[in-house]
Amino acid sequence: MDWLNAIVQGTLLGGLYALFAAGLSLIFGVMRLVNIAHGDLIVLAAYLGLTVTTATGLHPLLALLIVVPTMGVIGYVLQRQLLNQTLGDDLLPPLLVTFGLSVILQNALLEFYTADPQKMDAGALETASFAVGGLTLGVLPVLTFGVAVLVIWGLQWTFYHTAIGRAFRAVSDNQDIAQLMGLNRRHVFGLAMALALGVTAIAGILLGIRTSFDPSIGGGRLIFGFEAVIIGGLGNLWGTLAGGVILGVAQTVGAKIDPGWQILAGHLAFLFILAVRPNGLFPRIDA
Amino acid sequence: MPDPILQTQGLDAYYNDFQALYGVDMHVGKGEVLAIIGANGAGKTTLMRSITGLLSNGPGQISYHGEDISQLRADEVAWRGLAMVPEGRQLFPSLSVRENLMIGAQVGRKGPWTLEAVYKLFPILDERKDQQSTSLSGGQQQMVAIGRALMANPDLILFDEISLGLAPIIIKDIYDALPGIIGEGMSAIIVEQDISKALSVSSRVYCLQEGRISLEGASDTVSREEISRAYFGIE
Amino acid sequence: MSLQDYTVSRSSNAARIAAVVAALVLIALIAAPWWAGRAEMRLMGELFLYLALASLWNLMAGYAGLVSVGQQAYVGFGGYMLFALTMFAGLHPIAAIAAAGLLGALASIPVAVLIFRLRGAYFAIGTWVIAEVFRLGFAQVSALGGGSGSSLPVAVVKSLASKRAMREALSYWLALGAAVVVVTAVYLFLRSRKGLALTAIRDNELAAGSLGIDIWRTKFTVYVVTSALTAMIGALIFLQKLRISPDAAFSVNDWTAFVIFIVVIGGIGTIEGPIIGTLVFFALRETLADLGTTYLIVLGVVAIVMMLKAPKGIWGVIRSRYDLQLFPLGYRVIAPKPDNGA
Questions:
Q1: With touching defined as 3+ CB pairs under 8 A, do chains B and A touch?
Q2: How crowded is the C-beta side of C295, counted as CA atoms within 13 Å?
Q3: Using CB atoms within 10 A of its CB, is residue B2 exposed (0-12), middle (13-18) or buried (19+)?
Q4: Is residue B154 a contact partner of residue B77, using CB atoms and an 8 Å limit?
Q5: Are the C-beta atoms of residues B133 and B59 closer than 8 Å to each other?
């Protein structure tokens, strides 16, 4: 029963990891860019949520209404002003620029908020739980998982049933011809980044409610998101959800064996999958 | 003579340090079908890329509807009513047949070409509309590429080597359909290596040779000999 | 004038002058224990070790195209091997440093087999995951101090040399030696056929492959050798620090962020670049470090601006303006002087 509980908790944790990963996966799919500052942007969203909730007294979930559009705008501006300049055949510029961005973000957050761990207060939501067949499920983890499923469904729908989704796919296929169709690729990339950071904002707020955070945890969140993407397979958002779940389960089962083993167990599961299925479990595009 | 819809003046084009076009002067009239022929590497595709804005050029070298478009981005040129059927089809693999056609209409210009009109012209596309575009045969892909350009309801449509890689019977079918496609008032430039096909549907022809215009003439009166000389650069 | 009158040379006047200057500087540096103070020697030792790390990272990223943000894995590994081998196997510290290199090479082999399945930026993050695995793994080893780390026993420290002044001089010379060895090794490697193959891969992988160059094997070799040398540098670093902990040993900031900064500023893909970058980095650090986080933000901004405006770094700018190459790598065709009236 204990083991079943660990697996269920791990599955729900996977929802949070899938949210970390969704933005990463989207950006790679549209513009083949891997944003090393992605984890720090999740943390930025958490801090923005903190500022909004302390300034307005709003519940963190309501703060989403402000933080999501804000991060969207930040994403659009970031892409058009900085990241668009790094795109091209050379792999170094986007990697090194986003790495520099990561350093800047972490230290800017340190300046503003200090290194003290913070947490958003969501009131009763944090401890509420309900019983299902002998197991106790927390409302927040279930909600997080549900949000992850909804977000991924929403992203899939956007990609395959809207004009902007068509634009994303066309620009990622062939930038030149997409331009002949009247698509301004710099604007399209900006919109993609705005969407990705909007999703990242949701991840950040849910993270900030769930655990305490500080400016240095960005790298760890990036790695979890990245592991979920690789385990699940590139180019497949539902695969990313599966990857998140596998990672979450590996972590909680590892924690059950020895609490200090939690994160290491996740890494080892990732390396195992990398060894036996290098393209992930449900790949759609090549690395 | 009425003002041309598209005109180039002293057009030079460069790929980094390499010059591909030297002072090209050409024009297309409203409702005219123009052929551009030339050997591989003569500069035909470079000319098309310059006109559509994929390649940027010096100021004042290309004008469309009287407006200088030499320095505009490709998407800005597309918004002004210029569409291209690119060399090698270049459909979007992530999009279905229908989605490829729909994205052609991205510029939102009104006109006779709608999804239904394209399906009427090429019924096979209606049958395969939800298939992945790259799973179609070469000839069918060419139809999608042509339909995609038509969906933009352009004033000027460019056909870049549409016979490349296609079986003769398919080429014949497409060229038979061309006069119907290039409807009232639409101008067209047909870039081709297949000279007889190009001459059969056009009213005027330019020949490019090593980046320069080597011949200009009426399609129905220009002689084989003139063409050979201009094509190969023989004096 | 006929073709026979043209000569091909590897060197140039600039390179010859630079070699002489370098030899003079080296002699002065070797003599440092006699003219430099303790703090200055410590600073220079640190500088040499960073130069070595930067040259190695540059070899991997700038030449082999393997961008790693996880080299801290081997820095920490080397440090921990030094502690383990001296404390438990009774090795002399210098022997332990050499052994750390060998063990680092062995450890890097299975790592490479795994992460070479990833490409580009995903490879980069994969190296980071490996570093995290190392960090978490070593934090579990209680014999080495677990999560809080341990100090090098006095007996081990004394075995290096009994007098402190001698120990510090020895540490300094080891660091200087490491920098010289690494830079020389990188230079000689790049001059060799293998190095030419590497440069070909960097410039055009597809073309290089069609010429019969085994790309995977070349990159693999570079990764293993670089990791082994990085482990040795790591051992040296923690010999100087006398204390190790998982967070210090595997710090992304200290062993990757700063190193990347050095290479980007100095000039990636050149041998001169890391040298210039290290000097600039330390100059900035000595002047700005009081500002703490602001200093790091400045570093990040400078790195981004360099990458966008001057991607070839300071040395790249100098090289393109003056066509200089102080470490002669290419071949130059020297035209004969024209005769009068020719």
A1: yes
A2: 15
A3: exposed
A4: no
A5: no
* B40 and B107 assigned to the same domain: no
Residues of A in contact with B107 (CB under 8 A): 181-182
Q: What is the pLDDT of residues A63-91, one digit of tens each?
A: 999 999 999 999 999 999 999 999 887 87
Domain span at A162: 2-124+136-276
All domains of chain C in start order, with CATH: 3-334 (1.10.3470)
Which tens digits make up the pLDDT trace of B44-88?
Answer: 989 999 999 999 888 989 999 999 999 999 999 999 999 999 998
Question: Do residues B164 and B53 both lie within one domain?
Answer: yes
The two structure tokens encoding residue A158:
């956007």
Q: Answer whether residue A172 is part of any domain.
A: yes
The DSSP result for C42-55, as a single string, is: HHHHHHHHHHHHHH
Residue type, A122: A
The answer to whether residue B18 sits within a structural domain is yes
CB-closest option in A91, A260, A268 to C140: A260
Query: C257 is written with which tokens?
Result: 């962020």
Instruction: Point out which residues pair with B207 in neighbouring strands.
Output: B37, B215
Cα torsion B216, B217, B223, B226 to 10°: value is: -20
User: Model confidence over C24-49: pLDDT tens digits?
Assistant: 888 888 888 888 888 888 999 999 99
CA torsion sign, B207 to B209 to B215 to B216? positive
Token code pair at residue B191: 């870039």
Eight-class DSSP state of C333: E
Residue of A nearest to C141 (CA): A260
Q: Chain A contacts of C132, Cβ < 8 Å?
A: 223, 263, 267
Pairing type for strands B18-28 and A135-138 reads unpaired
Q: How confident is the model at residue A190 (pLDDT cuts 50, 70, 90)?
A: very high
Same domain as B115, residue B134: yes
Does A266 reach chain C within 8 Å, measured CB to CB? no
Report the domain count for chain A: 1
How far apart are alpha carbons A97 and C309 in whole angstroms? 12
Residues 6+ apart with CB under 8 A from C336: C1, C5, C6, C7
List, for residues A117-169, the tens digit of each pLDDT value.
999 988 888 888 888 888 888 899 999 999 999 999 999 999 999 999 999 99
- Domain with B140, as residue range(s), is 91-154
Task: Measure the CA–CA gap between A126 and A137, rounded to whole angstroms.
Answer: 12
The C-alpha R_g of chain C, in whole angstroms, comes to 21
Are the CB atoms for C160 and C93 separated by under 8 Å? yes
- Look at B92 and A182 and tell me if their CB atoms are within 8 Å: no
Q: Is C74 left (phi over 0), alpha (psi -120 to 50) or beta?
A: alpha
pLDDT tens across C68-115, in order?
999 999 999 999 999 999 999 888 989 999 999 999 999 999 999 999
* Sequence letter at residue A48: L
- B71 and B95 part of one domain: no
Q: Is A78 on the interface with C (CB under 8 A)?
A: no
| Neighbouring chains to A with at least 3 Cβ pairs closer than 8 Å | B, C
Q: Which amino acid is at B198?
A: A
Is the model's pLDDT at C340 over the cut of 60?
A: no
The answer to whether the Cβ–Cβ distance between C140 and A222 falls below 8 Å is no
Residues B138 and B160 grouped into a single domain = no
Measured CA to CA, the distance from residue A155 to residue A159 in angstroms comes to 6
∠B1-B2-B7 over CA atoms, to 5°?
A: 100
Does residue B222 share a domain with residue B165?
yes
Q: Is there a single domain that holds both residue B24 and residue B58?
A: yes
Using one digit for the tens of pLDDT, what is the confidence trace for B95-145? 999 999 999 998 988 888 999 999 998 999 999 999 998 899 989 999 999
What pLDDT, in 10s, does the model give residues A209-233?
999 999 999 999 999 999 999 999 8
**pLDDT of B235:** 60
ipTM given for this complex:
0.89
